[in-house]
Design goal:
heterodimer, A: 289 residues, mainly alpha, 74% helix, B: six-stranded mixed beta sheet, 20 helices, 36% helix, disordered N terminus
Chain lengths: 289, 549
């Protein structure tokens, strides 16, 4: 009994890294992600020139000592813009993930626990799922103008039903557990049952789901920006950098290449990390998704 | 070792000094150590033991079905018809499995493929090991299905597993296992998931098939009643070691090893002890015409309805234990869950003393929740794994305004009462064994100071020696707190020992009730008689180790 105590204790103490132990690819993903986060946070220190200042003299310069990743058609430094773009991507990815998880968690718990609400809520969710995210984004942008907030909202809404379904399925199975029934029979209020006995069971699959939402949000943001329906053109994001640069691709491939590589690396890192967490937290989820 | 009067039969399986290593960090080094046993042709050998005794590991090693990374046989031999199975290549073993040795499992639903017809599943065994054409194959399948006494084999050929009952599925499993006439059949708790009446039929079938075909059977079980019914010889295992082996008669009537004596002594007797009737005690719980119907409220079409329980009238007095016995689907748990109001009854009334609670809304029901508490069957799922057991115990009292400090002090007191360390309140559920968890659940129920305690199969998942202790505890707390106990069980032996009165339920209806002694001595209804006849090991008087007359 004593060695069980210590092993459980040490698992609680050694924190998130132990989750990735024995998963080398997951660790690589985590490191890449940490680098991207640092770049985004420290962007003002890292950029070599103002990412939005136009400087026609230096247009379409090759990567060099002065311009590490070259310059674009308006003479803006690509390195500075890629670093700045990480801020946009991460803001959109993390906000969309956090928003959809929080909203989806609340709706999913309610739908799963209160059977009489389930039918109505889930049909509304089915309706939401039928809306194509890109179309919704384009519609919202044309209504309220392009801004990062609009993009986040447009990405979050279609993700919510997926989270709701996940949470609901966990709640449906946990509410039948005898320990939940025992809580009911000692007159524990519903809110407390949801918070203490049911909520903790939804966390592991939700963490995994959040990484997927985050990756897909970053991709959607780039896609929308590429189409001109996302981040406003004056804010450098990986998507609109690629959109603007594509016309000059034969002349200056680096304008498209570097934001593209940054985007691909980041999304890959998030997905790999998500897979690693899934394997550790909930092996069964692999088949459910 | 074989001391039966008949000459020793040809040995089919001879396990010698088998030792299987556990992965590092397990609670012991070897899953089984130095295990030796033999199975002769036409002989049924039972391996009996509690959970963790290594009985299933032994069986799986013989079948070559151990998870290779975790469990490794490190010493010994498994001689099957003279060949050592441990030295065989995987391909050779695969060819032998199904043809020369085969296995049936505990849960027939998961052991069968849900998307294949049962005819095809039996046929598949033939396809792998023989080269029969379609006609011959179907003929063989029909023969074996007839042999295991499945009704109307022709029609059943195209049925899917979910369309069959549990007993029928186990018959299909047996048909698969026996269609090629193996020399050895390994049965791993094949009747544990079945109702007693079905269990009796399956045991009869296994015995009949084995006699007719001269198959050697290695039968794994935890149930001494089953052993008494079926075994020629018995091997008793404890923590990976064989502690005693001998003929069924020797082991059951004259066990020598203290562990065997303890195990057999823990099996509750089918003869109820004398109990004082309690006609004048105050009524704590009463139901009138209680019923629960599922389904019905279809929005667009009329749904199929299922009457889980109908017209149940019961009275439990203070200090009395009323048992509800029945098979799965009899509605006994439905009644318990209605009384606790985990589900809402559709008909009838429930009185707790004088308050009628069957139709109370959640907010009005709140103050009555205190008075009825329940202990569930599965000790591994009845406590929230993420909070300390103390936290689970104080939850109820704190809902009723008891301060945390007072509730915790009470929890420590109760832990002591149920036979656990008071300091154990700070531990998590996974640090306790099944029996200890069940004690904690009893403490949690008692923390509410209830009038009525419901035990819903509360000892059914426990090993027999632990079961005896938890039953004793339940009886102690009943006396100490003058509780009215509603005891739900499928196990007639347990019911005989703990209940003052019993009610027999069948298909949602109460078919018979009376004092335990009376019902056991003179069952009136046909169903009750059938149920009692099916109880395994009726001929043996367990409890006292002495032989029955």
């Amino acid at each position: 009994m004593t060695d069980q105590t210590t092993s459980a204790g040490s698992r609680r103490l050694s924190g998130p890294w132990s989750l990735l132990a024995g998963h080398p690819i997951g660790i690589v993903g985590a490191i890449v992600l940490i680098v991207v986060v640092l770049a985004a946070v420290l962007a003002p220190l890292l950029w070599t020139s103002d990412p939005i200042a136009l400087n026609p003299v230096n247009r379409l310069k090759h990567p060099s000592e002065l311009f590490w990743l070259g310059t674009d058609m308006y003479g803006r430094d690509v390195w500075s813009r890629v670093v700045y773009g990480a801020r946009v991507s991460l803001t959109v990815g993390v906000s969309a993930a956090a928003l959809s998880v929080v909203l989806g968690l609340v709706i999913g718990m309610v739908a799963g626990y209160f059977r009489w609400l389930d039918g109505v809520v889930m049909r509304v969710m089915d309706g939401l799922m039928a809306i194509p995210g890109i179309l919704l984004a384009i519609a919202l942008v044309s209504l309220s103008g392009a801004s990062i907030v609009t993009v986040i909202i447009a990405i979050t809404i279609p993700e919510i039903p997926r989270v709701v379904r996940l949470v609901r399925s966990v709640v449906l199975s946990v509410r039948e557990e005898p320990y939940v029934e025992a809580a009911i029979s000692v007159a524990t209020p519903v809110t407390k049952i949801l918070r203490k006995h049911i909520l903790p069971n939804t966390i592991p699959p939700l963490i995994v789901q959040a990484t997927y939402v985050c990756a897909s949000a970053m991709l959607t943001e780039s896609f929308l920006s590429f189409l001109g329906a996302g981040t406003p053109p004056e804010v450098p994001s990986w998507g609109n950098m690629m959109a603007e640069g594509r016309l000059f691709f034969p002349l200056a491939p680096w304008i498209v290449l570097f934001p593209g590589v940054a985007l691909a690396m980041t999304i890959l890192a998030v997905n790999v990390l998500g897979d690693a967490l899934r394997d550790k937290l909930d092996p069964k989820l692999a088949r459910r998704l | 070792m074989t001391e039966s009067s008949t000459p020793a039969p040809r040995t089919v399986l001879d396990v010698r000094g088998l030792t299987v290593q556990l992965p590092e960090g397990a609670d012991r080094r070897y899953a089984v150590e130095d295990v030796s046993l033999t199975v002769g042709a036409g002989e049924i050998v039972c391996i009996v033991g509690e959970s963790g005794s290594g009985k299933s590991v032994t069986a799986f090693t013989v079948m070559g079905l151990l998870p290779k990374q975790q469990l490794k046989p490190v010493a010994g031999q498994i001689l099957f018809e003279g060949d050592d199975l441990l030295t065989k290549a995987p391909a050779e073993l695969r060819a032998m499995r199904g043809e020369r040795l085969s296995m049936i499992f505990q849960e027939p639903m998961t052991a069968l493929n849900p998307v294949m017809t049962v005819g095809d599943q039996i046929g598949e065994v033939l396809d792998i090991h023989t080269s029969l054409d379609r006609g011959e194959r179907e003929q063989r399948v029909l023969e074996i299905m007839d042999l295991v006494r499945l009704p109307d084999p022709k029609a059943m050929l195209n049925a899917y597993p979910h369309q069959l009952s549990g007993g029928q599925r186990q018959r299909i499993m047996i048909a698969c296992a026996l269609v090629l006439d193996p020399a050895l059949l390994i049965a791993d708790e094949p009747t544990t998931a079945l109702d007693v009446t079905t269990q009796a039929q399956i045991l009869k079938l296994i015995k009949e098939m084995q006699e007719r075909r001269g198959t050697g059977v290695l039968f794994i079980t935890h149930d001494f009643g089953v052993v008494a019914d079926i075994a020629d010889r018995v091997v008793v295992m404890q923590r990976g070691h064989v502690v005693e082996s001998g003929t069924a008669d020797e082991i059951l009537r004259r066990p020598t090893h203290p562990y065997t004596r303890m195990l057999i002594g823990s099996v509750p007797s089918l003869h109820p002890p004398a109990r004082e009737p309690l006609h004048h005690a105050q009524v704590a719980l009463e139901t009138r015409g209680l019923g629960k119907t599922y389904g019905g409220g279809g929005f667009f079409r009329k749904d199929r309805t299922v009457k889980a329980a109908t017209d149940v009238n019961l009275v439990v007095r203070k200090g009395e234990t009323l048992g509800i016995v029945g098979e799965s689907g009899s509605g006994k748990s439905t009644v318990a869950r209605c009384v606790v109001r985990l589900i809402d009854p559709t008909e009838g009334e429930i009185y707790l003393h004088d308050a009628e609670v069957a139709k109370l809304s959640a907010s009005l029901l709140r103050k009555h929740r205190k008075r009825v508490q329940i202990v569930f069957q599965d000790p591994y799922r009845s406590l929230n794994p993420r909070q300390t057991v103390g936290e689970s115990i104080v939850e109820g009292p704190m809902n009723f305004g008891v301060s945390r400090a007072d509730a915790l002090a009470k929890a420590r007191e109760l832990m002591n009462l149920v036979g656990l360390e008071p300091d154990a309140v700070d531990r998590y559920p996974h640090q306790f064994s099944g029996g200890q968890r069940q004690r904690i659940c009893i403490a949690r129920a008692l923390a509410m100071e209830p009038d009525v305690l419901i035990a819903d199969e509360a000892v059914s998942a426990l090993d027999v020696s632990v079961q005896a202790q938890v039953l004793e505890l339940l009886d102690d707390v009943r006396k100490k707190f003058n509780l009215a106990v509603l005891f739900i069980t499928h196990d007639l032996r347990v019911a005989a020992q703990i209940c003052d009165r019993i009610m027999v339920m069948h298909k949602g209806k109460v078919v018979e009730e009376g004092s335990t002694a009376e019902v056991f001595a003179n069952p009136r209804e046909d169903y009750t008689k059938a149920l009692f006849d099916a109880a395994p090991g009726r001929g043996y008087q367990f409890g006292g180790v002495q032989a029955a007359e």
